[in-house]
C-alpha cells in the first residue's frame, strides 16, 4: 500500500490504532496538509486588529484559554541552532530512526492557561448571517494574518470575503505563533493541546462571553462585538488548521455545525509534503533574531522565500506582492507539532453530522505532489471517513497551490465554500 511505504520511508509510521487503511489514508493526508501548511508568518510590525479597513467592526482580544489534557513525551533531538535544525530534519527522515510508536516515551499532563490572541469581526448591521460564526484556524508557517491579507485585501482577504457574505468571523494565532503564548515547543505545543484550545475558543464563543472574558487590545467599540453570541459555528481551517478542525469533530463530534477544511484532502498517493526535508527549515531564532526573538528552543522556520514558494505557491497563480506578504508573515512551527501530527485523529470523526467541505488547490505540492486530479476517491471519503455528515464535497481550486488565500482567483474559491454552506442553511 503506497501510504505504508511512504510512511516507512518518512519515519512517520502510524501506531497500530491507525493501521486501518482508511485511517492511514486519512492521517496521512492530514499530515501532509499539516506539513504543507507549516510555514511561518509573524511580523515585525503586527497589524492592528483591522489591518485593511477602519470601516469594518473588529476587535483584537487576548483570550485566556485554560486546558487540562495530556501531551506525549517524544524522543527527538533538541533544536537550538541551524545545525541542530538540519540534524532534526535528518533524524525525522532517516529510515532507521524510531517510528512514531517507538518515539513515544510516556505522557505529560498539560494543565495551563494560555493567552491566545484573536480577532473577532461582525458584518455590517442587518446581515442575516451575522449569527453564524466562522472560527478560522490557520496552518503551519503562518499566523492569523493568513486569513486577512493586508495586500490587495479585496482580492485576497478571507476575513473581508466572509464579512461581505454576511458572516461573523473569529481568527486567532495558534499557540506558538503570532501574539499568542509560545510555551515549550517539545512537550506543550502538540496537536492534542491545539485541539483543546480550539474547543475552548468554541465554547467561549458559544456562551457569548468571548469578548467579556478577554482582554480587549484594540479595535472597534461596536457594542455588537462585546455581546456577540453566535447561533451556529462553522470551523474553517487551512492545512494544519484543517487538521485541528477535523481533530475537533473527531474528538467532539457535536461541537461544530460545519467544517470547511482547506489545503486538506484525503488522497491515496504518496505525499511529498510529508517529507520535512522539502520545507527548508532553520532554527527560527537564528534565522531571524528580531522576528523570532520570542521563539526559543525547538521552533523551526522556513529559511528562504523560495522555500515558502515551494510549499505554498504555484507559478502563474500568484502575484509577487503576495509571495512577499507570505514571507513577511511567516511564522515558526514547534517540533512537538510535527511529532504529534497523527495524534489528533481517532475513529469518532465518523459521528460528525454537519456538512464538510474539503478544498484543495489543483497544484498543491505537499498534498498531491503538485497535481490533485485523480488522487482521491470521493465515494470513499463520503462513506468511510464522514459517513454521518449531512453533505460532503471536494472543491478543487484551479491552477492553485497550497496557499489558497495567497493565490490569484482566491475569492472565487471562497465563494465555492460559502455556496456549499448555504445549501445546509449556513
Ligand atoms: C515500529 O517499529 C517497531 C520496531 O522497532 C515495530 O515493532 C512496530 O510494529 C512499528 N510500528 C509501526 C506502527 O509500524
Ligand atoms: C524515557 O523517560 C524516562 C523518564 O520518564 C527516562 O528515564 C528515559 O531515559 C527516557 N528514555 C529515553 C530513551 O530517553
Ligand atoms: C448597529 O445597530 C446598533 C443597534 O442595533 C447601533 O447601536 C449601531 O450604531 C449600529 N451600527 C451601525 C454601523 O449602523
Ligand atoms: C476561479 O475559480 C473559480 C472557482 O473555483 C473557477 O470556476 C474559475 O474557473 C477560476 N478561474 C480561473 C481563471 O481559473
Automatic annotation (TrEMBL):
Alphabetical list of InterPro entries matching this protein? AB_hydrolase_1, AB_hydrolase_fold
Q: Which residues form a coiled coil?
A: none
Transmembrane segments annotated in the record for this chain: 22-44
- What Pfam families does the record point to? Abhydrolase_6 (PF12697)
Provide this UniProt record's keywords sorted from A to Z. Answer: Membrane, Transmembrane, Transmembrane helix
Instruction: Identify the domain of life.
Output: Eukaryota
The segment(s) forming the AB hydrolase-1 domain are: 138-407
Q: What is this protein's name?
A: AB hydrolase-1 domain-containing protein
Taxonomic classification: Eukaryota, Fungi, Dikarya, Ascomycota, Pezizomycotina
Amino acid at each position: 500500500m503506497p501510504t505504508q511505504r511512504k510512511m516507512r520511508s518518512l519515519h512517520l509510521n502510524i501506531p497500530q490504532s491507525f493501521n486501518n487503511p482508511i485511517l492511514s489514508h486519512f492521517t496521512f493526508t492530514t499530515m501532509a496538509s499539516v506539513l504543507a501548511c507549516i510555514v511561518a508568518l509573524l511580523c515585525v510590525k503586527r497589524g492592528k486588529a483591522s489591518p485593511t479597513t477602519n470601516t469594518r467592526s473588529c476587535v483584537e482580544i487576548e483570550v485566556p484559554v485554560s486546558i487540562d489534557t495530556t501531551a506525549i513525551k517524544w524522543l527527538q533531538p533538541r533544536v537550538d541552532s541551524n545545525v541542530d535544525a538540519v540534524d532534526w530534519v535528518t533524524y525525522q527522515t532517516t529510515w532507521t530512526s524510531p517510528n512514531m510508536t517507538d518515539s513515544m516515551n510516556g505522557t505529560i499532563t498539560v494543565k495551563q492557561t494560555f493567552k491566545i490572541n484573536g480577532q473577532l469581526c461582525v458584518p455590517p448591521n442587518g446581515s442575516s448571517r451575522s449569527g453564524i460564526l466562522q472560527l478560522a484556524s490557520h496552518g503551519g508557517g503562518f499566523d492569523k494574518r493568513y486569513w486577512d491579507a493586508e495586500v490587495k485585501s479585496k482580492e485576497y482577504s478571507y476575513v473581508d470575503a466572509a464579512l461581505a457574505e454576511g458572516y461573523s468571523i473569529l481568527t486567532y494565532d495558534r499557540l506558538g505563533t503570532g501574539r499568542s503564548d509560545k510555551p515549550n515547543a517539545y512537550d506543550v505545543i502538540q496537536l492534542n493541546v491545539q485541539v483543546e484550545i480550539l474547543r475552548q475558543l468554541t465554547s467561549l464563543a458559544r456562551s457569548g462571553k468571548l469578548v467579556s472574558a478577554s482582554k480587549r487590545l484594540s479595535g472597534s467599540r461596536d457594542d455588537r462585538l462585546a455581546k456577540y453570541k453566535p447561533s451556529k459555528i462553522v470551523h474553517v481551517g487551512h492545512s494544519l488548521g484543517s487538521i485541528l478542525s477535523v481533530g475537533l469533530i473527531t474528538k467532539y463530534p457535536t461541537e461544530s455545525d460545519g467544517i470547511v477544511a482547506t489545503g486538506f484532502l484525503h488522497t491515496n498517493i504518496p505525499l511529498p509534503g510529508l517529507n520535512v526535508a522539502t520545507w527548508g527549515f532553520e532554527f527560527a531564532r537564528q534565522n531571524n533574531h528580531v522576528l523570532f526573538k520570542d521563539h526559543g528552543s525547538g521552533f523551526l522556520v522556513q529559511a528562504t522565500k523560495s522555500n515558502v514558494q515551494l510549499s505554498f505557491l504555484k507559478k502563474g497563480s500568484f502575484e509577487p506582492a503576495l509571495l512577499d506578504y507570505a514571507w513577511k508573515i511567516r511564522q515558526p512551527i514547534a517540533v512537538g507539532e510535527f511529532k504529534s501530527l497523527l495524534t489528533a485523529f481517532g475513529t469518532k470523526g465518523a459521528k460528525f453530522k454537519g456538512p464538510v467541505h474539503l478544498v484543495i488547490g489543483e497544484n498543491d505540492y505537499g498534498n498531491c505532489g503538485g497535481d490533485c486530479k485523480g488522487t482521491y476517491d470521493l465515494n470513499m471519503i463520503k462513506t468511510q471517513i464522514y459517513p454521518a455528515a449531512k453533505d460532503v464535497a471536494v472543491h478543487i481550486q484551479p491552477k492553485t497551490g497550497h496557499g489558497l488565500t495567497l493565490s490569484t482567483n482566491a475569492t472565487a474559491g471562497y465563494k465555492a465554500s460559502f455556496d456549499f454552506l448555504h445549501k445546509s442553511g449556513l
